[in-house]
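Please discuss these two lines.
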Amino acid sequence: MIVQVDIFNSQFQPTETTFCSDFSLSMDYLSNETSTFSLTGVTIDLKSYVAIKVKGASNSLYFGYVDSIDTTTDSNVITVTTKYIYGLLDGDIIVTNKNGNSYEAHLVNLLKMFVEQNNATIFDTGSIASTSSTPYVVSVSENITTTSLLTYLIRGLKLHAVTFKVDGLAVNKSTDIPVYHPNIVVGKSTQTTLNLTDKDSHLVNWSVQDSRLNLGYTNCLKIIDQASKDMEVPNVLATYYLTTDGQVTATLNDNVIQPCKVSVYLYDSTQSDKPSYLSVAQGSLTGNNYSHLIQVDMTEGQESIDFEHLTIGTLANIRYKETSYQSILTGFTCSGTSQTVTLLFGNIRNNLKDLLEDI
């Protein structure tokens, strides 16, 4: 595989375009792994940015910033290590109790605030928009805390299948040299749900780690009035369950793995704009349905997946060894030396770190 590498300077102005066959691209939304590209005869520094697309394609797969540069191997060859561009948002924000009808609009507001307060000039507040609306609830035990905006963005994928995506470049031509900004879209993937099966000969090297049967899989939520006075007799306002096919229901049925692991949401019945019990449950439980890691290599000839338009956050129905999984694409890797693309589905990674922890 050969990729096109478009290079931008610190002001996000295009400087060079080259092609690369010696690369390792890792697009992992949950951990922002590094990618490497061995480039020949280019000028690039630690303030540069790159856009990556398959040679001959029209859509970029990846936008990154340069994390390190190694010139020790050959005077004309530069090994560039990059990270996905959302890593530039790894700065602290405050988190308070909040709810609303659009998690996406909420993230857009946070992004614009962060860009303005931190002078993140490669982003333009006019080029940040949402494309969907998902009811949400954010609850913190101390009423206010802090977290990284990057962590908060990842939380959006885990809980609501909402992602931060660079959808091409917006250009400002008001200056002599055009200035580009990443066009940021916050929303759910609009790609058609993927249907994958281990009977497809172009899908090989399957690895499935399902944590839904272990003690870390929360599939029951009890919504309790925060005004409850007696821990032995709490005022339970509602109880919801997560079924094995990803539905949130108020009825305990055979599609709910038992015994359940229970979590509690403290509900403020006095607030003026109270969220519905169902929206609280959906926001707390739905993401747990993706508590697995499914890894599979896609070989040439696989026709049901358009790699050029592969989008993080795309939903997937996966059938493996007669077991069905409702999943979500959270990463992919490829390299110049391999004829396969590795797809990563689900909300856990095999480094044993539980990526489903809340704020």
Remarks:
- Confidence is low (pLDDT under 50) at residues 351-359.
- The first strand starts at residue 3 and ends at 8.
